[in-house]
Design goal:
six-stranded mixed beta sheet; 20 strands; 450 residues; 23% strand; alpha/beta; Nucleotidyltransferase, domain 5
């Protein structure tokens, strides 16, 4: 491959979004336009779905090379992604084990055993459950993975840590551990000692958008894609970063992102305490609070779609090609919740596929509307609601959401909100002036999405 001199390459910053299923990279130019993008399946072990952090790092570098091509040189990279997965590392920041997936069923046994030992902690921003990082700490300890470890790094932060030679944890990732007090920005030692045991394994916590250090990658440097002094920038949990990007577009906005889960996020300008339905984390580039509500979504649709006739009707109604019948307002479908409850139809549910599909979509729309209400209740004033993710392209589904919630929905047309939010963080770290409307390509007319 013929290398292109750095001086002939245009400047970009890159945002990386490490998702449970896919990893995305976008290149953002100084003119506030996304100039290139790449997507790959997040690499997982075929047996237990764990992730080899070094394999993930190679994948991210592959994607950065693709995004830069022969045209661009990257000046900063910021990574966001899954909030709970992490790895023990040695003194050279080499992983000593793979990352246990946040959804691994083996976590349930560990959580059941350790839950009674977890000290109460009012400042922790999330509820206790098996997905939390501290259960991963307990797993690593039980498996003997900490014996040769010198530290712990989140999977999302690993690339920046490896490039810069600096172990750290982004603050919105620390908030997902269930062992970090966001109000005092300190670890809850009793919880750390109950699971990880050794608090000295925990790295320093950095705020979103803070420079970690220079990117030292021989592979990227030899390919000519690194600008002189290119920086690794702290990112964090993908959903709050995506919500911050939309808040830049419309201050006080609420983002309803519909993918594997339905995640409702916002940036509150003040300090807010966690509620039963809303997790909290430090604000992104502000002194306020990131608000986050997560509800089961795809699992419910997939369960209902086991009946092929219902699956067909779900597609027709969601696309707007079929109007839902009166069962859209019924309670005959009971959605599975994030606690693991299974979806089901109640006694007396109709046999007609159209009615069942309408009931499913109506029930899920009400779950989403409740999440929006819970997040909005913690904001100083109601903001506009934006929708993103694959389901935001389904006009029939959005019509049901608007009908149920009584709110108008604006569509964010940028398909990778979290990755673009990460790129915007990288740009802000370099003091680039970014126009959020140009970046997000959002519908800001505040008209109905129908």
């Amino acid at each position: 491959m013929t290398l292109v001199k750095r001086a002939h390459r245009g400047p970009i910053v890159c945002g990386v979004d490490i998702g449970s299923t896919n990893t995305k990279v976008v290149g953002l130019g100084a003119d506030s336009r996304v100039v290139s993008r790449a997507q790959r399946q997040t690499p997982r072990d075929d047996t237990d779905l764990s992730i080899d952090a070094q394999q993930l790092l190679r994948l991210i570098e592959d994607m950065l090379l693709e995004v830069c091509g022969t045209e661009f040189a990257v000046h900063a990279v910021c990574a966001v992604g899954v909030g709970e997965d992490g790895i023990p590392v040695d003194a050279q920041l080499r992983p000593t084990a793979s990352a246990l997936a946040w959804f691994d069923p083996r976590r349930a046994r560990l959580f059941t055993a350790v839950a009674p030992q977890l000290a109460a902690a009012d400042g922790v921003g999330v509820g206790d459950d098996a997905a939390r990082t501290l259960v991963g700490w307990l797993w690593a300890r039980e498996q003997g993975q900490l014996e040769s470890a010198a530290g712990w790094v989140s999977l999302t932060d690993y690339a920046a840590s490896a490039w810069s030679g600096t172990a750290f944890m982004s603050d919105s990732i620390a908030a997902r551990t269930a062992a970090w007090d966001g109000r005092t920005r300190s670890w809850v030692l009793a919880r750390v000692e109950s699971t990880l045991r050794d608090p000295t394994l925990l790295p320093k916590v950095l705020t979103a958008g803070e420079a970690v250090g220079p990117i030292l990658s021989r592979r990227l440097d030899e390919a000519g894609v690194l600008a002189p002094g290119a920086l690794a920038i702290a990112g964090g949990h993908d959903h709050p970063i995506g919500g911050w990007a939309v808040d830049r577009l419309d201050q006080g906005a609420v983002l309803d992102s519909m993918g594997t889960a339905e995640v409702v996020v916002a940036q509150a300008p003040e300090q807010v305490n966690r509620t039963t339905g809303v997790d909290v984390a430090p604000g992104i580039r502000n002194t306020g609070t990131s608000l986050l509500s997560v509800e089961e979504f795809t699992r419910n649709v997939e369960w209902a779609s086991l009946d092929p006739e219902v699956a067909s009707e779900l597609r027709l109604i969601a696309s707007g090609r079929r109007k839902p019948d009166g069962y859209v307002d019924s309670d005959v479908f009971v959605a599975g919740d994030r606690g693991g409850g299974r979806p089901k139809y109640s006694v007396g549910a109709p046999a007609k596929a159209t009615s069942r599909a309408a009931a499913v979509l109506g029930a899920l729309a009400r779950v989403g509307a409740d999440a929006i209400d819970e997040v909005t209740a913690l904001m100083p004033a109601p903001g506009h609601v934006y929708v993103a993710g694959g389901w935001s392209r389904a006009p029939g589904w959005l019509a049901i959401k608007e009908q149920v919630s009584g709110r108008r929905m604006q569509i964010v047309h940028e398909p990778e909100v979290a990755a673009v939010g990460a790129a915007m963080l990288a740009a802000a770290a370099l003091d680039w002036v970014v126009d959020a409307d140009t970046v997000m390509r959002a519908d800001t007319s505040h008209e109905s999405a129908r």
